[in-house]
Specification:
- The protein contains 16 helices and 19 strands.
- By secondary structure, the chain is of the alpha+beta class.
- Helix 2 (26-37) links the parallel strand 1 (19-22) and strand 2.
- Helix 12 crosses helix 15.
- The protein starts with a helix and ends in a 5-residue tail after the last helix.
Length: 518
Amino acid sequence: MNRSESLQKIKNASEPFDILIIGGGATGLGAAVDAASRGHRVALIEQYDFAKGTSSKSTKLVHGGVRYLRQGNISLVLEALRERGRLTRNAPHLVHDLAFVIPNYSWWEGPFYGVGMKVYDQLAGKLGLSPSKMLSKKETLDLIPTVETENLVGGVVYHDGQFDDSRLAINLAQTAENLGGVLINYCEAKGIIKENGSVSGVEVRDTETGSEFCVKAKCVINATGVFVDKIRLWDDASAQTMVTVSQGIHIVLPKKFLPGNAAIMVPKTADGRVLFAVPWHDHVVVGTTDTPIDHSSIEPRALSSERDFVMEHAKKYLSSDPSDSDVLSVFAGLRPLVKAAGTAGTAALSRDHTIVVSESGLITITGGKWTTYRKMSEDVVDQAEMIAGVDNRRCNTEELHIHGYRKVAPINDRFTIYGTDSEKIEALIKTDSSLIVPIHPLLPYLKAEVVWAARFEMARTVEDILARRTRALLLNAKASIEAASLVAEILGNELDKDKTWREFQIKQYTEQANGYIW
């Protein structure tokens, strides 16, 4: 992907796009893939970077939702399990089967959760992963040796998917572009254009240069997550807000706190949510919370009460209690939940997605979750075809391979998450051996990955590199700050930026990353 080329394609379009998408998170990117795969002319604009918001701050799971099964929302679980199976097949370089163990501390928990997980298995049908089963105490400890052993009687193991969220987002952007879509980051929607009362485009500002231009389209999709109401109010000043915001946080710990290859799932916490301790990139991600928030922010921060809650449960279920000094990073993400009358608390709200079409034809989609992004995309593009007046074409993303698809990854390949692009990164190193140098001794990333992200993944800032193209910010916030200077130097060379730009990037990133330090 090349930003300059994409910008020119959008600016110089000789006729309206069939579909214009506002928002470069999971939903917007998925819709771009779906629309492009049907042969429609599609463009996407993102105010910040792809997956800057909620879509890079998930629990890193592709799952059916055990909690929704307990709530009785069978249809959501069934849909999510099917999508989980499709995603593991379409992006095996990023999504894989992971064992989850529910530790049992009472005699009745084994049969109770065991039956529930068998139902979970059956709902997945042919798209299921490995089957669940009950475990003895020894088998439980073999899988999760650092779980709290006091009163432990056994466990139940089931399987779900795990992935790297922002890497999948980048691959979706690449997939859409490969199919003919035009996508660009750092382009902000400034207003809705209407002709005869119908939405006909969007006013756009290039945030890098400040230049403004208009993008015409037969249909506009508002896929801005927690910010959808802002766009809706541009369209109709009397529109009622439809989104309630919930915050979830995670802490990241060293691998020693969960050294095996299985995750821990706590089925019920004080706030009614499940809680996970998940091995991820040789670290452990623990979360999450469900805290109602009265405003949306592009860079939310974990509340002290949330941090205490997650740490309390980590200490309760891990035999070795983590201390504050063990926390390598703490990150927060916001969930867009559709308002429901008479519902107390956000934990009780469903994660179903919702599509609303205004009188002017603006399509808004919100809610849902990463696992069901493909189905959300299918549904919204079906609507967009009708609004745009273009041919109705069958969705074909159920079996569409995502950019980087590689069925079998090489053993111990440090570039596994890049899929087939790993060979191109290795080729970069062969042409310049200095690129094999790590960006920091405590981080698993090389200079080559910075160069690759700048040249082919539309990375524009130090934050893009350290937070989303690599996951340095989440794996070790302090180390990522120390790596910022080197990354700014490499990125500055690639983008032809001067010393002032580099110094500003380092300062800006340091201020942001300090918010991820415990």
